[in-house]
Amino acid sequence: MKKQVVLLVAVALSTAAFSQEKISAGIRAGVTTSRMEGDAMQSLKDLIEYTDGMITTANRTGIYAGGNVNIPLSKVMSVEPGLYYTQKGMELRGALDLKGVEFLGAGAKAQLNTHYVDMPVVLKATISGFQVFAGPHVSYLAQADLKTSAGILGYNIFNRKMDATEYMNRWDAGVTGGVGYRFKNISLTAAYDHGLMKTDADQNMDAYNRSLKVGIGVNF
After folding, report:
1. How many CB atoms lie within 10 A of CB 26?
2. Checking DSSP bridges between strand 130-152 and strand 155-163, what pairing results, if any?
3. Residue 98: how many CB atoms within 10 A of its CB?
4. Among the ranges given (28-42, 53-67, 99-113), the one the predictor scored with the smallest mean pLDDT
């Protein structure tokens, strides 16, 4: 994995060295919605179906923010390496939905919160403001925590948070791609990140990161 990081950095630096156009920097921030997919997650979903809706899975909503450098290759094409803090994860939700006791509002939630440093390097095409981009990304897991809670009658009767970092794979690699539109120095983007490495520390479970990002950027 360290070799992949070095390769991405080398590509960005070599591209900058040969660029004849003006290089610009920018910042970007926005909202993420994440989940995990794979055979392991599909088995979990199949098991959840037997609960008749009492347990459901949900995406985890978070944020991302960071900076990038845009290196023009021509009037249309450019290479853009970036460095971003990104929140990912997933949720499990349970509810006590029994006839005659709906007023209790009993429910429980387990939320896996993962905090990554994402390093994408994308090839971007810009035509009349419209942008299309795609490329590889490498991610490092800085922290992971599992939050569990349960409540009844509007009161929180159980709330616990544990460090789950040691159970997670510290590295992830994958591909990212999306579209955007640039208004002079302001840009709007929507991207999809597709993780290719198993997320558990032992890499035995087929569970992979999947994220959608919508954000706004400013170029200098």
Report:
1. 18
2. antiparallel
3. 10
4. 99-113
pLDDT at res. 206 = 87
Q: Tell me, yes or no, if the pTM score tops 0.85.
A: no
Q: What is the pLDDT of residue 108?
A: 73
DSSP 8-state code for residue 145? E
Instruction: Locate all alpha helices (DSSP H) within the chain, ordered by sequence.
Output: 2-18, 39-48
- Residues 25 and 81: their CA atoms lie apart, in Å, by 10
* Cβ(104)–Cβ(152) below 8 Å: yes
Task: Say how far apart CA 191 and CA 159 lie, in whole Å.
Answer: 34
- Residues 11 and 154: their CA atoms lie apart, in Å, by 54
Whole-number pLDDT of residue 98? 46
pLDDT given for residue 104 in this prediction: 47
Predicted confidence band at 101 (pLDDT cuts at 50, 70, 90)? very low
Largest CA distance in the chain: 72
Radius of gyration for the alpha carbons in the chain, expressed in angstroms and rounded? 20
Beta-strand runs (E) in 154-203? 155-163, 171-183, 186-195
Q: Is the CB of residue 116 less than 8 Å from the CB of residue 86?
A: yes
Half-sphere exposure of residue 43: CA atoms within 13 angstroms, side-chain side: 6
Residue 32 pLDDT more than 50? yes
Could you tell me the CA-to-CA distances from 137 to 28, 38, 87, 187 in Å, in that order? 16, 19, 15, 21
Q: Are 36 and 208 within 8 A, CB to CB?
A: yes
